[in-house]
Amino acid sequence: MIIIVVDDEQDCQLLFKQQFRKEIKNNQVQLYFAFSAEEALHYLQDQLTDYIPIILADINMPGMNGLEMLKIIKTSFPNLKVFMITAYDDENNYLTAVKYGADAYITKPIEFNKLKEKILNL
Questions:
Q1: Rounded Cα gap, residues 100 and 37, in angstroms
Q2: Which of 64, 75, 91, 93 could cross-link with 37 by S-S, CB 3.0 to 4.6 Å?
Q3: Is the dihedral of CA 36, 42, 45, 48 positive or negative?
Q4: Which residues carry this modification: 4-aspartylphosphate (predicted)?
Q5: Residue 48: its pLDDT value, please?
Q6: Which structural domain, as residue segments, surrounds residue 15?
Q7: How confident is the model at residue 65, as a pLDDT?
Q8: H or E segment to which residue 81 belongs
Q9: Does residue 69 contact residue 6 with C-beta atoms inside 8 Å?
Q10: In what order do the strands lie in the sheet with 81-86?
């Protein structure tokens, strides 16, 4: 399973690799990282999206934010699962994420056991 993590904070790469190390080692999960919404959209346009079941995206990023990216992804690639991640449990962001078609809304700190369960049960 391929997971694209979209977050402008580079240290998220180490965190996700540590949290998913068992699944990576067992070839259950492949993680790819994009450090902006624009980078993620370029990556999606160049890939066969049938092989990308899930995107984990931060909401607050410079440039295009995660909600704007979500709207584009769900319009262009409606079958992709997109989980929105945020440090701020904001009702407006939640309602916008739901309106744009988010498959999950996760607040930080991320409970990785629950996240893995959601991902692996897709």
A1: 15
A2: 64
A3: negative
A4: 58
A5: 64
A6: 2-120
A7: 97
A8: strand 81-86
A9: yes
A10: 30-34, 2-6, 54-58, 81-86, 104-107
Q: Report the distance separating Cα 50 and Cα 46, nearest Å.
A: 12
Measured at the alpha carbon of residue 33, what is the angle toward residues 87 and 109, in degrees to the nearest 5? 20
Instruction: Give 122: exposed, middle or buried? Use CB within 10 Å, 0-12, 13-18, 19+.
Output: exposed
3-state secondary structure of 111: coil
pLDDT tens digits, residue range 56-75?
999 999 999 999 999 999 99
Q: How confident is the model at residue 49 (pLDDT cuts 50, 70, 90)?
A: low
State the CATH number of the domain containing residue 12. 3.40.50.2300
CA 43 to chain CA centroid, nearest Å? 13
Give the pTM.
0.93
DSSP for 7-61? -S-THHHHHHHHHTHHHHHTTS-EEEEESSHHHHHHHHHHS-GGG--EEEEES--
How many domains does one find in the chain? 1
Classify burial at 5, counting beta carbons within 10 Å of its beta carbon; exposed 0-12, middle 13-18, buried 19 or more. buried
